[in-house]
Design goal:
The chain is an alpha/beta fold and 266 residues long. It contains eight helices and nine strands.
């Protein structure tokens, strides 16, 4: 496909963001990727322009939006993984993950939507997580942040659709991107939850080690971008078709038990 559309992909120096940026560039889009410090050149994909963006600072979001100009496609991918018992999550860490995973992406979207609306075309993809649909113990802050970003996207779809702008969410399952080495762990050394916590995190790490690849997720993101009428939600990996089919027919309590068993909590 050849196009003159311009796409902005956040968190484009590694993982899903890098794969999405490459896929779009290969398909003829003009692609701008972001990272916290792009001047080093680390993680730059061929054919992608880079600008700095730190979602934890609202002024950085505003500078990025001003620097990139007219954007047709926004892929809100940048984010952070956080784990910990609810009882022990520090307030500053809760605020940080919501600024990074929710408030920052929403702010960026707000700044770019007027231009999309004025031009009569836009695509916004929120990269979420299947954990938002199938919550797991000790991931409450991360699950809540991903559920929040999906909520913004799903609710706002009807607002902007009359102006040619489509908003959707892509929920990947377990992905082999090395994210298990970059988790932010919020648990005290003498936590009463430490044994169960180790079990769940060990299972998550094992699932991700054999998870789907970032390029596979990228192809789903691009499919959502290029769809004439994108669905509210796309899910990929972790046997998503079966999981969501079961979710539609099984009571919530049954689904909760299934998820717990899959993570060795009985």
């Amino acid at each position: 496909m050849s196009t003159t559309r311009t796409a902005l992909v956040t968190g484009a120096t590694s993982g899903i963001g890098y794969a999405v940026a490459r896929e779009l560039a290969d398909r003829g889009y003009r692609v701008i990727g972001t990272g916290r410090n792009t001047s080093t050149g680390v993680g730059h994909a061929d054919g992608v322009e880079y600008v700095d963006l730190d979602l934890t600072f609202p002024n950085s979001v505003e500078r990025c939006a001003a620097a990139v100009g007219d954007i047709d496609i926004l892929v809100n991918n940048a984010g952070e993984s956080q784990c910990g018992p609810l009882e022990e999550l520090p307030q500053e860490e809760l605020q940080r993950i919501f600024q990074l995973n929710v408030f920052g992406p929403v702010h960026l979207t707000q700044l770019l939507l007027p231009g999309m609306r004025a031009r009569g075309y836009g695509r916004v993809v929120m990269v979420g997580s299947m954990l938002a649909s199938f919550p797991v113990a000790f991931r409450s802050s991360y699950v809540a942040s991903k559920a929040a970003i999906k909520g913004f996207a799903t609710s706002a779809r009807a607002e902007v659709e009359p102006y040619g702008v489509k908003i959707t969410t892509v929920e990947p399952g377990a992905i082999d991107t090395g994210i298990s080495t970059r988790r932010n762990h919020c648990i005290t050394p003498d936590s009463v939850y430490r044994n169960e916590y180790r079990t769940v995190i060990g299972k998550l790490d094992a699932n991700e080690a054999v998870g789907i690849s970032a390029p596979r997720v990228a192809r789903t993101v691009v499919a959502a971008i290029e769809a004439e009428n994108p669905k509210p939600l796309y899910a990929v990996g972790s046997r998503a078709p079966l999981a969501f089919a079961l979710k539609r027919v099984a009571p919530d309590a049954v689904m909760e038990k299934i998820v717990l068993r899959q993570h060795d909590i009985h």
